[in-house]
Design brief:
Elements: E1 5-12, H1 15-20, H2 22-37, E2 41-42, E3 50-52, H3 62-70, E4 78-81, H4 84-87, H5 91-103, E5 107-110, E6 113-115, H6 120-153, E7 166-169, E8 174-177, H7 179-193, H8 198-204, H9 209-218, E9 223-230, E10 236-243, H10 250-262, E11 281-283, E12 290-295, E13 298-303, E14 313-315, H11 316-331, H12 334-344, H13 348-380, H14 386-415, H15 421-437, H16 441-446, H17 449-459, E15 471-476, E16 485-493, E17 496-504
Parallel strand pairs: 1-2, 1-3, 1-4, 4-5, 11-15
Antiparallel strand pairs: 5-6, 7-8, 9-10, 12-13, 13-14, 15-16, 16-17
Helix pairs in contact: 7-13, 8-9, 11-17, 12-15, 13-14
């Protein structure tokens, strides 16, 4: 008689159990012994249906679904589980699965005992076991949710997920800060505010782009929201504001949030054509933004469609020749001056940050090497397939290469960073000279498109003191035929408001030599 081909269903209920591997190994060894005693054989790649799955039936059980889909392909004759709780803790899912096995002629073994799926007594026994398992799992989960809610109300950690860079002491019930993570996010914040994008930083630090942005926006200050979803147990979705230690200064947090918010307007998306003031010009009459268009080969800033009838469009060259030099007169090449300040005055604090980052880099590399060794051990123990092990090792090696490149860059920075008060004094003198150069008209004429765009973005990133959008507010005065256009520059640099007003003509280019600085916005013409 041909031996039965057994497909084992092996699972654990948590990722922690899967990482430790004890439960999976116990089930696998027991099933191997059962199959041998029954005179059967295991299918090729027998542990393909092994892994971590949620015990309560709330989440889709992919391993079971995959097995049921394969049950009609003739790949195996019988299904075997360690006990009924490994089969299912969801009675509805259990009944649907058993019906699929019956229709496909697959037998069912629980340990050494076969349960006849056509025998009502056997399916009753299996159903009772599943029902009890489902009851216990749901009761335990509801108690756990109620306990987590009470903890969150007291400001304690209610789950395994902590806000980035914070620690939780179970004994003292106190929050703390991870100094290595704090140093890393200080460096990330400095690079972000200096001009690097979220995708660039995520790649450099081996992080998920969306998670990095969420962390920078929501987890750097003293407030953290714990959300507990208890809808399946009649507890609804509950949110609790938790007080946590600050990771970054408040002014840095605000600057980060302003810049991220600005990506929805000033920085949002790629600009197909080179419109220098794209997303920065706003109609003063109605508040709508102007966008760049090219008509018959000529670039314009066009008014968004609406009820405003003051003007439809204005030539890009006309507007840019008036506004961009005006901005330069107000703030100079602020981004370049900021970069010069960071590089020309290397402080002891900056050196310590680089040294701390190198130490963290070394720790991260050790963790990656350890993780690769653990994956190789797991593969040798048949916990992972070759494909699974290769994918996991490849991801770690990509991160390892990034860390090694970063370490080399940091070592170079450290080697070139001078020390001592005399060097710092000379650096400050060099910085002053650089700032004077970057404020001259000659420097402005040498600035390329990207430099000018960065200058404008720095000015128009944060909203004003009333929370209104920064930008160039443009009006057309139909009563004035000589200089019918005037604009207001509304922006901020380093948290300080910048405001200025000028008129200009649509004829031969000219700007009024008398600039007017005003304490309040100029009212729009009737």
């Amino acid at each position: 008689m041909k031996p039965l081909r057994f497909a084992p269903l092996v699972r654990v209920s948590s990722e922690q159990q899967e990482r430790r591997g004890e439960s999976l190994n116990v089930q696998r060894k027991a099933i191997e012994n059962y199959v041998e005693a029954l005179g059967g054989t295991l299918i090729d790649n027998p542990w393909r249906y092994s892994g971590q799955e949620h015990a309560t039936g709330i989440e889709e059980r992919e391993k079971l679904d995959s097995l049921l889909a394969d049950s009609g392909k003739g790949l195996f004759d019988a299904l075997i589980v360690y006990d009924t709780s490994r089969w299912s803790r969801d009675n509805l899912k259990s009944k649907q699965g058993l019906e699929t096995l019956r229709q496909n002629g697959v037998r069912f073994f629980c340990g050494m005992q076969e349960l006849d799926l056509w025998n009502p007594d056997h399916t009753l026994i299996l159903g009772i076991g599943v029902e009890i398992g489902e009851y216990q799992a749901k009761k335990q989960t509801r108690r756990s949710l109620e306990s987590r809610i009470e903890k969150a109300k007291r400001g304690e950690l209610a789950s395994g997920n902590r806000p980035v860079g914070r620690t939780w002491n179970k004994k003292t019930k106190q929050w703390g800060i991870d100094p290595a993570v704090k140093a890393k996010y200080e460096q990330i914040a400095a690079e972000f505010l200096a001009g690097k994008s979220i995708p660039q930083l995520a790649k450099a630090y081996g992080m998920d782009r969306r998670r990095l942005q969420d962390n920078l926006y929501s987890c750097m200050g003293t407030k953290w929201v714990q959300k507990i979803d208890g809808r399946r147990y009649g507890l609804g979705i509950q949110e609790f504001k938790t007080q946590i230690p600050r990771l970054l200064p408040d002014e840095t947090v605000q600057a980060i949030r302003c810049k991220i918010d600005a990506h929805k307007t000033v920085y949002h998306g790629k600009i197909k054509n080179s419109y220098l003031l794209s997303r920065m010009v706003i109609c003063g009459h109605c508040g709508r933004a102007l966008y760049g268009v090219t008509i018959n080969g000529y670039p314009y800033y066009r008014h968004e469609k609406g009820e405003c009838k003051y003007f439809t469009y204005i030539a890009c060259k006309l507007l840019e020749q008036a506004i961009v030099p005006h901005v330069f007169r107000l703030i100079g090449d602020a981004p370049a001056m900021e970069r010069a300040a960071l590089s020309a005055i290397p402080s002891r604090e900056a050196r310590e940050k680089i040294e701390a980052r190198l130490r963290q880099n070394k720790r991260d590399l050790l963790k990656i090497n350890s993780a690769i060794n653990q994956i190789q051990t797991a593969y040798e123990s048949e916990i992972y397939t070759q494909a699974e092990a290769s994918t996991r090792i490849k991801n770690h090696r990509v991160r390892k290469e990034t860390l090694q490149a970063e370490a080399a860059k940091l070592q170079t920075q450290l080697a070139n960073m001078p020390e001592g008060d005399a060097v710092i004094r000379r650096a400050r003198l060099a910085l002053k000279q650089l700032q004077e150069t970057m404020s001259t008209w000659r420097h402005f004429t040498a600035m390329n498109w990207d430099d000018k765009r960065a200058m404008l973005q720095m000015l128009f990133t944060a909203p004003d003191h009333e929370g209104n959008r920064s930008g160039v507010y443009l009006w057309k005065d139909n009563r004035n035929s000589d200089e019918p256009w005037y604009y207001e520059i509304r922006g901020t640099i380093g948290g300080n408001p910048v405001f200025d007003v000028e008129r200009f003509s649509t004829g031969d280019y000219k700007v009024d030599s008398t600039r007017t600085t005003m304490a309040s916005p100029l009212s729009a013409p009737a």
